[in-house]
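Re: [ENG-882] Designed sequences occasionally contain unexpected residues at chain ends

Forwarding the minimal case from QA. Structure tokens:
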């Protein structure tokens, strides 16, 4: 469970924790409290410890120690502790005399000063430690937020690069059909409109229903199949039920696009095999195609696949396995994604 508190609540909880910790550490002294006067004297004496703690926590550490001003930090710390101890010695004597109803006689010696300063140094050490720890935590939080924003921006950029790349190739296919078969071109435009809606409106989301991704895979295969005489050479096998599973959008289509792009007519006739297996907590995607001889020496990965690799690393870090095997005449992509 992830509990996120508003900043003001976090601050309040921190100070309550500090006070609670101080009380727990000081439990042995509670046995000396017999009257309300003793209780008042006890809390007054702890005020000076809190002054030392918060002077370091709120001022000295962030202003001097954090900026590596070591010498001024030490000088001011010793000065503040010495002055606070001096004031505290006389303040507590006055309070004790008032609470007990005794005649006021002020005492001061070096032993009283040193013992008081030691106590305040201990409180200051806690203030320094807590400030360092909270500053470290805040910095880690800022870095985490910054890293998430960076990854989000990078992911958006990658999606923006993948989508035009995919659409550019699809429009080229339709342009070819317009001159050869207007009926197929019209059918292609209808298929493309569905893909456009998906690309424009759905890919901005971090995840989409798996069923919707499957529908667009089918639409894309149908769209590409219109270019070829034999639909039976293109196989799409689906195993399992999508149910309520979610997936990052446009992960699989670029691999299918790559299969068509680098197969050529001859390669498509030899067959393109696409399989998606839906397991309980994982997805397995396999795409196998034959490479046309004229394209065998070219890079079969391309711009789109490089971006998909980056997207997998960003959206499914340590939760996916990508295997690409290429020979002189075939190309195989295998992806396994573990779903949360």
């Amino acid at each position: 469970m992830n509990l996120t508190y508003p900043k003001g609540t976090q601050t309040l909880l921190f100070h309550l924790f500090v006070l609670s910790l101080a009380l727990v550490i000081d439990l042995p002294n509670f046995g000396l409290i017999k009257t309300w006067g003793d209780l008042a004297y006890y809390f007054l004496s702890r005020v000076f410890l809190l002054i030392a703690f918060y002077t370091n926590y709120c001022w000295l550490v962030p202003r001097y120690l954090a900026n590596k001003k070591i010498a001024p930090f030490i000088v001011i710390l010793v000065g503040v502790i010495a002055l606070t101890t001096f004031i505290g010695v006389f303040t507590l004597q006055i309070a004790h005399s008032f609470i007990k109803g005794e005649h006021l006689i002020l005492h001061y010696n070096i032993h009283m000063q040193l013992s008081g300063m030691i106590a305040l140094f201990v409180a200051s050490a806690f203030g320094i430690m807590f400030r360092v720890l909270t500053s470290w935590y805040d910095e880690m939080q800022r870095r985490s937020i910054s890293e998430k924003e960076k990854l989000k921006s990078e992911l958006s950029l990658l999606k923006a690069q993948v989508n035009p790349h995919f659409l550019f190739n699809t429009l080229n296919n339709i342009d070819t059909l317009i001159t050869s078969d207007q009926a197929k071109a019209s059918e292609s435009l209808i298929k493309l409109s569905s893909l456009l809606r998906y690309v424009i409106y759905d890919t901005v989301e971090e995840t989409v229903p798996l069923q919707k991704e499957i529908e667009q895979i089918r639409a894309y295969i149908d769209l590409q199949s219109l270019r070829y005489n034999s639909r039976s050479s293109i196989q799409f096998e689906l195993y399992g039920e999508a149910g309520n599973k979610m997936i990052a959008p446009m992960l699989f289509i670029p691999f299918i696009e790559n299969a068509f792009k680098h197969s050529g007519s001859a390669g498509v006739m030899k067959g393109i095999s696409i399989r998606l297996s839906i397991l309980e907590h994982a997805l397995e995607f396999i795409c196998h195609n034959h490479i046309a001889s004229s394209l065998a020496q070219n890079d079969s990965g391309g711009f789109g696949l490089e971006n998909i690799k980056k997207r997998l690393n960003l959206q499914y870090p340590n939760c996916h396995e990508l295997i690409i095997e290429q020979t002189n005449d075939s190309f195989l992509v295998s992806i396994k994604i573990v779903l949360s």
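QA comment: On inspection the terminal residues look reasonable. Residues 7-144 form one domain. Proposing we downgrade this to a documentation issue.
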